[in-house]
Design a protein that fits this description.
It comes from Thermanaerovibrio velox DSM 12556. GO terms for molecular function: hydrolase activity, acting on carbon-nitrogen (but not peptide) bonds, in linear amides. The record marks 156-157 as: Cleavage. It holds the Pfam family Asparaginase_2. This protein has 327 residues and is an alpha+beta fold. It is built from ten helices and 13 strands. It has helices spanning 19-30, 35-47, 93-101, 111-120, 131-147, 211-217, 219-228, 233-249, 309-319, 323-326, and strands at residues 10-14, 69-75, 81-87, 108-110, 158-163, 169-175, 196-199, 203-209, 258-263, 269-273, 277-283, 286-295, 302-306. The strands form two sheets. Strands 4-3-2-6-5-1-11-12-13 form a nine-stranded mixed beta sheet. The chain has a four-stranded antiparallel beta sheet with strand order 7-8-9-10, with helices on one face. A hairpin with a 2-residue loop joins β11 (277-283) and β12. α1 runs antiparallel to α2 (35-47), α2 packs antiparallel against α3 (93-101) and α7 (219-228) crosses α8. It is globular. Residues 1-5 have low confidence and may be disordered.
């Protein structure tokens, strides 16, 4: 399949939290920058914002009250891939993942090995546990004991896909994973084919939701594969999710929350979800905006609309609530 050169650039990301990041990424693309630079700079914005509780600085800690982060990067032109998992004290794990993608071997590092590599390569290190996140951990642990509450929450991954003016594509992910997860737990986000996949000749996709389920279907790869077979971005994402859900349910198992966004080499965008899901898109033809997707039935159909000013204001208020009112 020959690569299609688009008429413009496109960038999109998961959840409202990526809006500022993809706005920056869009400016990079508009000035002729690469898709790789755009997705990494977009993710960095989210990693650096402590109010976004599921990514980077201020990310929700594990059961031992330690912030362990996962991130990945993939270049669609070369298929180069890099990732880190269960890494602590690295300010921008997405940049560490991108650095690893340039290696021939040892492209996926975890835990202490990833941290040691980051120090050798002079990446900025910092304590990623904020007072707010520590307080959230204290509140949730108390409620677990008093109310028999499930600990797991706050597993929203930021994932970004981009297409640049040269027709090159890239994608990246970053997350702190499940709130109060077991130390060392890794979800789908840093796994090639599950949390993300990118091939500039076929498309790019990222996933967010319950990693334990997303990994079972390699949903990002499946979405890109379907685009490579000629499906539109929307049809590819929805078919991948719908068929995966059917396989799991036929085996008597439940399916957790899953959402996918994707982009084809032609610049058309797609989304699939089994929950209410916010995402943001921008292009050379449209300023970055937040959209809300909601399932409308059991066949994968969705309603998608631009987020209202009321929704956006409510989101902003929630970001500033004290932990006592959130957890």
């Amino acid at each position: 399949m020959s690569q299609v050169i688009p008429v413009g650039w496109v960038i999109g990301g998961t959840w409202r939290m990526c809006l500022e990041g993809i706005s920056l990424g869009g400016r990079i693309l508009a000035e002729g920058g690469s898709a790789g630079d755009a997705v990494c700079e977009a993710v960095k914005v989210v990693e650096d914002e402590p109010r976004y509780k599921s990514v980077g600085f201020g990310g929700l800690p594990n059961g031992d009250c330690q912030v362990e982060l996962d991130a990945a990067f993939m270049d669609g032109d070369t298929l180069d891939f890099g990732a880190v998992a269960a890494v602590r004290d690295v300010k921008n794990p997405v940049m560490l993942a991108r650095r690893l993608s340039s290696e021939r071997f040892n492209t996926f590092l975890v835990g202490q090995g990833a941290q040691d590599f980051a120090r050798v390569e002079l990446f900025e290190m910092r304590n990623m546990l904020t007072p707010r996140a520590k307080r959230a951990h204290e509140i949730r642990r108390r409620r677990m004991l008093e109310e028999n509450l499930s600990p797991y929450d706050g597993h929203d991954t930021v994932g970004v896909v981009a297409l640049d003016l040269r027709g090159s594509m890239a994608c990246a992910t970053s997350t702190s994973g499940l709130f109060m997860k077991r130390p060392g737990r890794v979800g789908d986000s840093p796994l090639c084919g599950s949390g993300l996949y990118c091939d500039s000749r076929m498309g790019a996709a990222v996933a967010t939701g319950l990693g334990e389920d997303i990994m079972k279907g390699a949903l990002s790869y499946e979405t890109v594969r379907l685009m490579g077979e000629g499906f539109s971005a929307d049809r590819a994402a929805r078919r991948a999710l719908r068929e995966f859900e059917a396989r799991v349910l036929s085996r008597g198992r439940k399916v957790g929350a899953i959402s996918i966004i994707c982009c084809s080499p032609r610049g058309d965008i797609g989304v699939a979800t089994n929950v209410e899901f916010s995402f943001a898109w921008g292009s050379s033809c449209s300023d970055p905006k937040v959209y809300i997707a909601r399932p409308t039935g059991e066949d994968g159909d969705l309603s998608v609309e631009e987020a209202s000013s009321h929704w956006l204001e409510a989101y902003e208020r929630r970001l500033n609530l004290p932990p006592e009112e959130v957890f």
